[in-house]
Write a structure and sequence with these properties.
Number of strands: 3
Helix content: 25-40%
Order of helices and strands: EEEHHH
Largest sheet: 3 strands, antiparallel
Distance between the termini: 16 Å
Strand content: 5-15%
Strand order of the largest sheet: 1-2-3
Number of domains: 2
Amino acid sequence: MNIHYLQHIPFEELGSIKPSGALQLARSKACENQAVVYDDRVIGLQYHLETTKASAEALIKNCPHEIVEAKYIQTEKEILSDQSRFDKINSEMERLLDHLQTMFH
């Protein structure tokens, strides 16, 4: 198995980079390359499907200095306001992982 390491890329630049030959799966106003797939075996995501309400609450509690007023940063209230959003992204994560499992078995 060949393992390739990516060069260090500053976090704020990640969403603007798409490897040559990668297929763009999702984009948003905040991030041009929200999700990409490369070579049918590498997936790049610029969002956190694993986030639960409890993990979001922990991030808010432990990193309050990161919740600042800015164009693409949600307030604490916005982040925690809708449990169904967490349910939806967690379900999407399960679908993605199930799909990956079928690809490699």
